[in-house]
Amino acid sequence: GRSGTLTWSVVSGSLPAGLTLDSARGVIRGTPLSSASGRVYTFQVRVVTNNPAVGSNGIAVNTPTYSITVP
Hints:
The protein is mostly beta strands. Helix content is about 0%, strand content about 50%. The protein has no helices and five strands. The strands form two sheets. Strands 1-4-5 form a three-stranded antiparallel β-sheet, with no helix packed on it. A two-stranded antiparallel ribbon has the order 2-3. Strand 2 and strand 3 form a beta hairpin. The radius of gyration is 14 Å and the shape is elongated. The termini are far apart. The model has no long low-confidence stretch (mean pLDDT about 85).
């Protein structure tokens, strides 16, 4: 099994209003607010582990940049 924990965060850009990133699971949840309509939101996510097997500083990985278009 996996030891240590993963922590997810948005490190650049932003999610549409009404959406949040679950920092423990890396899941985007919610419903975009109407104020977000008609826009493209670009963001990048980072996941960090404190798994002792990778050293005392853990490891951080940035994902590619993603875009969400709110209709």
